[in-house]
Amino acid sequence: MVGGNAFDVLDAIFAQTLKSRIFVNRDVLGHEYVPNELPHREEQIAKLGAVLAPALRGSKPSNVFIYGLTGTGKTAVTKYVLKRLYAKAAELGVDIITCYANTRQDDTTYRVILKLGECLGLRLPFTGISTAEAYRRFIRIADARSAIMIIVLDEVDFLVKRHGDELLYRLTRSGEDLSHTKISVIGITNDLKLVEDLDPRVRSSLGEIELVFPPYNAIQLEDILRQRAKLAFYPEAISDDVISLCAALAAREHGDARRALDLLRVAGEIAEREGGPKVTVDHVYKALKEIERDRARELIVTMPLHSKLVLLSIYTLTRDGGKVTTGEVYAHYKSLCQALGVESVTQRRVSDIVSELDMVGLINAQVISRGRYGKTRIISLAVSADTVVEALKDDPYVGRLLLRD
Ligand code: ADP
Ligand code: MG
C-alpha cells in the first residue's frame, strides 16, 4: 500500500511527541505570550502605571513615548500594564477603553483607524471612504462613549516612515475634536532615530513622558529565561547551564529577550525531535545554527537580483576559505551578469551592496589600507557557505548559474 509508509512515519512522529518529556507548555516561549511576571522591568512598569493611573479617576493620562531596541520588553510591559489597568477599571466600574495596534501589521493610516474603530465596536468599511472620513466617524463614536481611551501604537516607526505622522498629530490633538471622551496615546518604537522624523509639535505632545527600555545583560536574561522555563519545561528536562548559555549568546547580540527565548524554544524542539530526555548545551548550539540559518535564508531570498549576484561572487571566490577584495568581487560579478545577459551595475553600486551585505551580517568586510594604492576591503562570508548556496539556489536566474559549476 502506497500510503502505508507515510502513515507509519506520521505515527512515529506523533508517538514521539506524545511520549516526549521535554515541554509541559511550549507556547509560553512563543512571541505572543505575555507573562505575569516581568523581572527587571519593575521600574518601567511602575512608571507607566503611575502615568496611566489617573484614568481610573476619569482624568486623561499624559501621552507616553516608549523606546528601546527589539526584545527589551516594550510590548510585553505595555500590554501587561494595560491589562492590569483594565481589570482595575472593571472592578471600579470606570469606563476605560484600551486599544492596541501594531503599525507594522496594520500598515496604513486607514488600517490603523479601522483597528481603533474595532476597539469601539465600530465596523468601518474596508474601502470606499476617505481616511479623513474614517477618522471623523471614529472620533464621533469615540466621543459618544464618554470614556478614557488609551491607544497604543506599537512599532509606530513603520507608520511614520511610510505614511508620515499625520495620524499621530491628529490623535495627540484630539482634545480639540472631542467633548466627552479623552484620548491618550502611547507610541512605541524600536528605532531611536524616529524622534527626528517627527513634527516638533507631535514630538512635544507625544514625548510628555518618555520611557526608555535599556537592553538586558546576560544575568537579567537568565532570570527572564529561568522564570519562563519553569512554565515551559518539565523540571528534569532543563538545567542551569542550558539557560546560562542561551542568555550569554543572546547578550552577545544586544540583550534581546526574544532571541534568548527563541534559542531556548528551538533547543527544546531539537531535543524533542531527537527523542532525548533533556535539553543539552549541544542542543543550544544546534539551535543557534538553525536560527542563524533561517535568518540568513530569509534575508537572501528577498534580496534583489544584483545583491544576490554580488553575494554569489563572494561565495564563489571564497568558498575554499579565502578572502577577496571589492575589485575581485566586481570583476567576477560582471562576468556573472554577462553569462546571464543582464546589464551590470557600477562598481560604486557594487561597493554599496557589499556594505549592505556587511551590515545585515551576511559577510564581513574589513577596510584595509594599501599604502599608495588607497583603501580596499577584505571580504569573507559571515554565514556558512551551505546556507548561502541553499538560499541562492531558489532564485531562477542565480540557480542557473549555480548549476553551471
Ligand atoms: P519589544 O517589544 O521591546 O521588542 P517584547 O516585549 O516583545 O520586546 O519582548 C520580547 C519577548 O521577551 C517577549 O516574549 C516577552 O514576553 C519577553 N520578555 C521581554 N522582557 C521580559 C521580562 N522582563 N520578563 C519576562 N519576559 C520578557
Ligand atoms: Mg514590540
UniProtKB/TrEMBL annotation:
Biological source species: Ignisphaera aggregans
Residue ranges occupied by any Cdc6 C-terminal domain in the UniProt entry: 311-392
Record InterPro entries: AAA+_ATPase, AAA_16, Cdc6_C, Cdc6_lid, ORC1/CDC6, Orc1/Cdc6_arc, P-loop_NTPase, WH-like_DNA-bd_sf
GO molecular function annotations of the record: ATP binding
Protein name per Swiss-Prot or TrEMBL: ORC1-type DNA replication protein
Occurrences of domain AAA+ ATPase (ranges): 60-217
HAMAP family linked: ORC1_type_DNA_replic_protein
Statement: the UniProt record of this protein carries the keyword Nucleotide-binding: yes
GO terms of biological process kind: DNA replication
